[in-house]
C-alpha cells in the first residue's frame, strides 16, 4: 500500500487559514490502513481545525467526507454536486489523490493534509516500513523476494557493500542490511548458488529516468 | 579573466563552443580552438549536451586552459549530486578555470544512454546559490573552506524561445540573477524578432545577455529545425536564401557572421558561436565579423 504520515497541524493551518468553507476529504484505501487519512483522521483533523478557528474567533465551515478512493474518476464525481460549497479542500489521501482532485476540480484549491512516504507494509500497529520503490522492472525473482533497491541504502545489486556489519546497515544500526536478508533467504531456500550470479546492469528507464510513467493496457481499454 | 574584463568594460565578447571528444583523442578539439584563440574571448565547453556521453566539460576545459585558452566550464545537475558538484567546482577553480555556467542538462532519454538514472539532487537555481556559497568561503553544509573560488558565473535564459512567455522568462532570469548569475546565454537566434519581446523588457546595458548564433550546416538542417524544434524560430526567408544559394555552406557561414554583426549593433554583451561539430568553420565566421 501507499504509506503516508499526518502533516503537522500547524502546516495545514497555514495552508487553509484564509479560507471560510473548508472540506476535509479522506480516502478509504491505503491511507486508512496506515491511519493517516481515513474517516477517523478526517474527524480528528476537522475537530482540530474547528478548535483553531474558534480560538481565532473566526467562523469557518468545516465539513467531512471520506470517499472510497481518490484515485478513480467515479468516486471523485460523487462530490461534484457539493464542491461549489467550499473555497478549499484539504485532501488527506496520498499525493495521487490530491493531484487527481486538483485535475478534476480545476478552480478549487486542493491542499495536502498528509505527507506521502512510500510503498510499504504494516509491520505492526503503528509501524509501517518500505518494501517497494516501483522501479518498473521487478527483480525479486533473483533476490529471494527481498528488494535491494527499496531496502538497501545504496541500492547495490550485487551483494552487500563494505558498510554491512553484523547484518546491519552502516547508515543506521536499526536497519537490516538488505543483502544480509537476501543471503539468509537464499540460504533458507537452498538457492545460495544463485547469489554468485551477476545481476545484469539495471535499466532505470522503467524507473523515473524516462519522466512520468504510464501503463497502457489495450486489452482492457474500451 | 579576459571575458570578465570585457563584460566590465562593456565590450562585445565572442564566445565559441568547443565540444570535447567522445573518447580521449583531443588533438581535433585542441587544434580547432588553437586556430581561433586570438579572436575568441573564451571557449564554452558543453557538459554532455543532449545527454550524449563524452569527455566532461571540466576535462575539456582543463585541457584548453592548460594550453593558454580561457574557458567557460559547464555544470549540470543531471549527473552529479551536491557533493560531487561542489568538489568539481573547487577543482575547476584550482585548475585555473574562472568562468562557470550552470545548465539544466537534458533528460537521458534525449541522449545515447537511455537507461541512465538522472541525479537532480539539487536544481539549477540551487546550484547557482551553491557557487555563491563557495565564493563566500563555505560549502553547503556550512563548513569553512580553505580558500574560496571567485568565478564569473553564467547560466541560460530562454530569451527568444518560441512559445515561452517573456514575462516568465524574465522572472526566471531575475531569480538566477538574485542567485548570483552575471551572464546569460540564450537559445539560438536566427532573427531579431524572436528575441524582441524579451529585449523590450530588459536593459541590455544592465545585464549581460549572450545570444547563441548557431551555424546551420545545410538546407536540410535549417528545414528540420524550423519544422521540428518548436522553441527556435527560423524565418522562411532565411531558408529560401539558403535554398537559392549555389554555395550553401558558404551562405550559412555568411548568415552566422551577419547575425553576430546584427546582435553586436543591437547592444548585446556578446555572442556564443555554436558550430556543433563544425568547429573548423569558426575561422571563416570570425573572419567576417
Q: Overall pLDDT of chain B, averaged? A: 95
Helix-and-strand structural type of chain A: alpha/beta
Overall structural domain count of chain B: 1
Q: What's the number of extended β-strand segments of chain B?
A: 8
Determine the CATH topology of chain B: TIM Barrel
Distance between the termini of chain B: 22 Å
Overall number of strands of chain A: 9
Beta-strand percent range of chain B? 5-15%
CATH architecture of chain B: Alpha-Beta Barrel
Number of helices of chain A: 7
Question: What topology does this entry show?
Answer:
The complex is a heterodimer of chains A (about 220) and B (about 290).
Chain A: E1 2-6, H1 9-16, E2 21-27, H2 30-33, H3 39-55, E3 61-67, H4 73-77, E4 88-91, H5 95-104, E5 110-112, E6 114-124, E7 127-132, H6 148-151, E8 168-169, E9 172-176, H7 178-188
Parallel strand pairs in A: 2-3, 2-4, 4-5
Antiparallel strand pairs in A: 1-6, 6-7, 8-9
Chain B: H1 2-9, E1 13-17, H2 27-36, E2 42-45, H3 57-66, E3 71-76, H4 82-94, E4 99-103, H5 124-135, E5 152-156, H6 166-178, E6 183-188, H7 192-199, E7 208-214, H8 219-228, H9 236-244, H10 248-266, E8 270-274, H11 282-287
Parallel strand pairs in B: 1-2, 1-8, 2-3, 3-4, 4-5, 5-6, 6-7, 7-8
Helix pairs in contact in B: 4-5, 8-9, 9-10
